[in-house]
Every structure is written in structure tokens, then in C-alpha cells.
Amino acid sequence: MIGPFFKVMFKAALFALALLFLPGIGLAGPSTYTCEISDYREIDGDTDNSLAEFAMESSVAIDRATGLVIHPTLGNSVYDKVELLSFGSSGWSFRAVAITEGFDGKGGPGAYYEVKEWEDGPKKPMVIVDGGVVFFGECE
Q1: Which residues, at least 6 apart from 96, have a Cβ–Cβ distance to it below 8 Å?
Q2: What is the pTM of this model?
Q3: pLDDT score, position 37
Q4: Which of 49, 51, 61, 100 could hold 108 in an S-S bridge, CB 3.0 to 4.6 Å?
Q5: CA–CA distances in Å: residue 85 to residues 92, 94, 112
Q6: Which of 24-28, 97-101, 103-107, 117-121 has the lowest average pLDDT?
């Protein structure tokens, strides 16, 4: 039987292979946001989080059509389920949630992604909630 760690690593490896071999999947298009993280806050108010600081160093790519989020630490390809809640429009935010069944089958980590598509201008405010940390930034 394959352990939970190997299950997650297998999904990550499949995703990496898809990026290499599927034409155009890595290219930003009209249905893709490219986002920069500018700040973060933790639930407990802690402002010294090395993982959050590391997360701010990389851009975030969000596929509006599928809800797939590509990022070294905030990406959702390793989750069991990615649910697209809203594509985003002139009246609604883009919203997606990612969840995993957890290693005990009773629920586990999850993440929430929102881009205020309805905001005026080329840059749209975004928020990512992952692991008790809220990340803020802008997407184009």
C-alpha cells in the first residue's frame, strides 16, 4: 500500500510531467492570471514566517478555466480536489477552493483563492488563504 507522502509526491510528479509535455499549458493566456504577492498576515498575528516570506518571492499563475494554481508553495495541484466556484466576471470575483481528504480520510488541508475580477483597471486585487496564512496581492 502506498503511503500518504508518496501519494502527494506522485500527484506532484504527474503535474510536473504535464507541464513539460502538454503544449501551451505553461503559457499565460487570456484565461490565466499572473499574480504578485505583496503582503501576508497570519491568524495569530505572527509576522515572522519564513515559509510565507519564501512564498512572496515567486509569481502565482491561476488558470481561470480550471481553478488550477501554479506556485512552489501555494499551488493546488497536490490537493485531492480543486473546485472552481466562480470564473469571475464584471460582476463577480474569480473563486476556487482546494481540499484534500487528509491522511486519515477525515479531512485535511485546504486553500481558498479569490481574484476581484470586477474591480476596474488592469490589476485585480487577490487573496489566498492557505495554512492559517492570508496572502494579499494583485493579478493581471
Answers
A1: 62, 67, 69, 76, 82, 83, 84, 85, 112, 113
A2: 0.72
A3: 95
A4: 100
A5: 11, 8, 10
A6: 24-28
Residue 36 forms beta bridges with which residues? 138
**Do 84 and 96 touch, CB atoms closer than 8 A?**
yes
Written as one letter, the residue type at 102 is G
The C-alpha cell of 133 is what? 496564512
58: nearest Cα among 47, 48, 68, 72: 72
The count of other CB atoms within 10 Å of the CB of residue 79 is: 20
Q: What is the pLDDT of residues 67-106, one digit of tens each?
A: 999 998 888 887 888 899 998 888 899 999 998 876 666 6
**Other C-beta atoms within 10 Å of 101: how many?**
14
End-to-end, the C-alpha distance of the chain in Å comes to: 43
